[in-house]
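Suppose a colleague, Dr. K., hands you the sequence of a protein chain of 84 amino acids and asks what its three-dimensional shape might be. Before reaching for any lab equipment, you can write down a predicted structure in token form. Begin with the sequence itself:
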Amino acid sequence: MIQPTSLDAYQNLKIGPRQRIIFLAFWKYGAVTNLEISTWEKIPINQVTPRTNELVKLGFIVESHKRKCSVSGRIAIAWRVQHG
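The predicted structure, expressed as tokens, is then:
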């Protein structure tokens, strides 16, 4: 369940519609790789990676850890929403 304060913060984000879709996917899944978002949300990887990079620069997404991607089987960065 999303806390009311988190929902308020989300609604006040000043990001574009494509960034918002990717941000919500990270919020939904937690610490995940770009390829996992791409696969699970059926969004082309070339639309996920640039939005992730933009969200990182804006401070909304941060690196969580490196782990084996469940899609590719390779070591990849898992990203997560920056809380706080």
